[in-house]
Amino acid sequence: MSDPSDHQALMSDLVKKQMVMLGPNLVLSKARQVAGLTVAEDGTVQAISGDPQKALQDLANTFMELSGQIAQMTLNALLEKYPGVKKPD
What we know:
It contains 4 helices and 2 strands, in the order H-H-E-E-H-H. By secondary structure, the protein is mainly α. The protein has one domain. Strand 1 (about 35-40) and strand 2 (about 45-50) form a beta hairpin.
């Protein structure tokens, strides 16, 4: 089982990278719509309530709707830093 703090760190990294590519207003708005996530102004995921894997899946899907392959490639690169986190489907 993966460490929930790894999920939190991975999602924080993902949000921050998307903020650079797509702009903070859009990215924060979308990330804050993901059920169970609390996201700070700087893109840090401060808390996850519920299943962290589901939150990661929902966040990844949200960003893929916005930027498709770019979001997928960013996520894949970040997952290498967190080997205990299962890749979203």
